[in-house]
Design brief:
Elements lengths: L2 E3 L3 E6 L6 E7 L7 E5 L8 E3 L5 E2 L6 E3 L5 E3 L2 H9 L5 E5 L12 H10 L1 E3 L5 E5 L3 E4 L4 E5 L4 E8 L7 E7 L4 H6 L5 E3 H9 L12 E4 L2 E2 L10 H14 L6 E8 L3 H12 L5 E5 L2 H4 L17
Parallel strand pairs: 4-9, 11-19, 14-19, 16-17
Antiparallel strand pairs: 1-10, 2-3, 3-9, 4-5, 6-7, 7-8, 11-20, 12-13, 13-19, 14-15, 17-18
Helix pairs in contact: 1-2, 1-5, 5-6
Enzyme class: hydrolase
Family: Belongs to the LpxC family.
Cofactor: Zn(2+)
């Protein structure tokens, strides 16, 4: 059955790119509501933005969604991954600024708070998007592919010049809480050489060594080092789950990304939904529901860093 959060969940912090303080509340919502953001600081006009693929503006550094009135909210990928990874299908997210708080740079604080509040079952079946044929998109930087599969499985490959990251690959079946146990605590990362350029472009204004992994050559500058030896590729998989959640329902298929990012994953969803015979939307049977990312997750499985 579909779910929502048991009660409101509150967060406050700073936007990674804007550097602005922000408060956010994840509220219960009825069946078939989906995930919808509400800009509580916007008093006139339409301030609601559905978290859907066709509301996204393709961006290399974060996921930004915008409604027809031009109201937007950005850096939604971590909270979207947390909701998908905890098996939450419906929520109204009230936010008093243009960007989701970065917290520690991972999805773990969102996951821990959602799990502590609990998930409520609703009286409606889960609808899933079953991938029937393979779609693939390419850019000069990399590619992404989505094909048929059981449940949601993922392969990801990255390649960075800095030896602290280098080449990393990982494959996971995201069933039965794998996201919570294996991915949710992995933090966003960047190269020290990119920080000045991002800030000159008005980005990463709220980034610190406490909410991002910063590397310089073979050195990890962030105090305490890495949470996982392959934290970078794990975070890329976390981002991919959050971006795939913009499909509007759990996906049954296999995702593969090679040097992929937010824009490529959104291009992939656009390609999927532009291929009418490439997918079908249907009710999820109990056996399939038991294999979805949030099924069977327990609070004690959340990593202790959150």
């Amino acid at each position: 059955m579909q779910t929502t959060v048991q009660s409101t969940v509150r967060f406050h912090g700073t936007g990674l790119h804007t550097g602005q303080p922000v408060k956010m509340v994840v509220c219960p919502a009825p069946a078939d509501h989906g995930i919808v953001f509400l800009r509580s600081d916007i008093r006139l006009g339409d301030a609601t933005i559905p978290a859907l693929w066709d509301k996204a503006e393709q961006s290399p550094l974060c996921t930004l969604i915008k409604n027809d009135a031009g109201v937007s909210v950005s850096t939604i990928e971590h909270v979207m991954a947390a909701l998908a990874g905890c098996g939450v299908h419906n929520a109204l997210i009230k936010i008093d600024g243009p960007e989701v708080p970065v917290l520690d740079g991972s999805a773990a604080p969102f996951v821990r708070a959602i799990m502590a509040t609990g998930v409520k079952r609703l009286n409606a079946p889960i609808r899933v998007i079953e991938v029937l044929s393979t779609v693939e998109v390419h850019t000069a930087q990399g590619w992404a592919r989505l094909g048929p599969g059981t449940g949601l499985t993922m392969d990801f490959h990255i390649d960075f010049a800095d030896a602290a990251i280098g080449r990393q690959s990982k494959s996971l079946n995201l069933a039965n809480g794998t996201f919570v146990r294996e991915l949710c605590d992995s933090r966003t990362f960047c190269r020290a050489s990119d920080v000045d350029a991002m800030r000159a472009a008005g980005k990463a204004l709220g980034g610190t060594l406490e909410n991002a992994v910063v590397v310089d050559g073979d050195t990890v500058l962030t105090p305490g080092g890495l949470r996982h030896h392959d934290e970078a590729v794990r975070h890329k998989m976390l981002d991919a789950l959050g971006d795939l959640a913009l499909a509007g329902a759990p996906i049954l298929g296999h995702y593969e990304g090679h040097k992929a990012g937010h824009a490529l994953t959104n291009m992939l969803l656009c390609a999927l939904f532009a291929t009418p015979d490439g997918f079908r939307i249907r009710d999820c049977d109990p056996a399939e529901a038991a294999q979805l990312p949030g099924a069977g997750v327990e609070e004690h499985e959340v990593p202790a860093v959150a």
